[in-house]
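FORM 7B: Structural annotation worksheet

SECTION A. Query
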Amino acid sequence: MVPDVAGIDKRFDYLAPPDTPVGALVRVTLNGRRVGAWVVDVDVDPPADVALRQVNKVSGLGPAADVIEVAEWAAWRWAGRLTSLLRSASPAVVVRGLPPPAAAERLPVTAPALPAGGRTVLRLAPAADVYPVVLAAAATGDALVLAPSVDQAGLLAMRLRRARVPVALVPRDWARAAAGGSVVVGARAAAWAPAPGLSAVIVLDAHDEVYQEERTPTWNAWQVAAERARRAAVPCVLVTPCPTLEQERWAADVVVPSRAQERAGWAALEVVDRRKEDPRSGLFSDRLVTLLRGGGRVACILNRKGRAKLLACAACGELARCERCDASVESVEAARLHCRRCGLDRPVVCQACGSQRLKLLRLGVSRVAEELAALAGEPVAEVTADTADLPANRVLVGTEALLHRLDAVDVVAFLDFDQELLAPRYRAGEQALALLARASRLVGGRGSGRVLVQTRAPAHEVLDAALHADPGRLAAVEGERRQALGLPPFAALALVSGEAAPVFVDALSADTAVEVLGPDDGRWLVRAPDHAALADALSRTARPAGRLRVEVDPLRF
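SECTION B. Predicted structure
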């Protein structure tokens, strides 16, 4: 048994009722209290001269044996506890029995064949319809299909049902999926869904970072699904408009459409070179103003919340800083400055000369919404991840979250794309191209819609790839750069932090298989030649008492 108790990563032997299956959810007594647990093995030899306790209760069904084996692999791969992975693989409600398999009801499906080979990246343009690929997977039998959001998974399930294909939409239909005979569809957690007759694995928008769990262990859904496909010896197809370098290196084959098909699925991209613009225009180029006033729905993207993220005194030019920690302060309200580092609030007053007039050097979406409303001559709505309902305004401005709230628009305008291109992250190029791909999908590919990019780096390789509708242009440049710098996929990385990190890192530094760099702001970077070497080194190092976070494959490094 593996108990469902935080901080315990051990197995215990109990006496279970006959025919208790592997993966069953049970209740046992541990250290004087009753806790939940998973059965991970049966018919084991208990330690000699030890009186075993009886299982108190068999609650219901849980992950199958093959899923438990993948969870054990993932706990090693991402240096985490098995317990948290088994939670992801378990049903949300108690399941005591399964419905009849749906195989007898299945109707034949006519669809093109999946790409040949076990590991395939299918590079479809952003506006291309992925449903034929899903239908092709359904024709193979009980396929597992991952979508980047719950809404998209629901739409796919609905289309498959209209084609008379039995579907299990997880987590709601966990029992139906475990019974077999259905195509299993879901979002990130569906990587752990039961699929007893697994015939194929499809991951849609495989480049999307939403597939990676931010809590430790930082497992990635497409990699978990790919491992399940490998163990079952079935095809795994990653469908994406802009595959990451890790995915291209994983694949045995990268299938690319014709140039005409790919170009048709990428929107027309307009690049505004801000170096040639009047600096007094701020974030709003002449072309942006024209599109704002030209009709149609417009989405303006700026990944900075609040009113202003950087201010300076209009009288003496001194930057507005926090009087406690010296960090830059931001304007969150008209008469208040806020420090995000230490939380201090203070009035709008220059510490150097006492002036109350500050210049806005870096606007946030709240202030931009006010200025866009004046330019457009109509109300402009602000949308962030905290916005409950999407406003019906014609012009919207918001963070990256706005791109994931919309179904379609006429124009997507990135007000300060240099913030994405020049972000201090090694994945910045891939992340920026993913934003352009998402924008192309919203405006419907190469039609009347437009994607506008305001930048001072118009020759950047990301923009070159999007202009030519060829993500391979970015991959070629990015691959050489990362190989020279020893970054993934040519190395494996982990970030270590927490109060127990110094002790853990000190012990890990003695392992010759890894390189430890740092500390930097309380974090250490651990680098190894590959994931196997990194995972082995992390598993060999004993974890000290205290809070410790080990983030394998960090997204924001």
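SECTION C. Observations
The two ends are 37 Å apart (CA to CA). Residues 491-552 form a domain with the Alpha-Beta Plaits fold (CATH 3.30.70).

SECTION D. Sign-off
Analyst initials: ____
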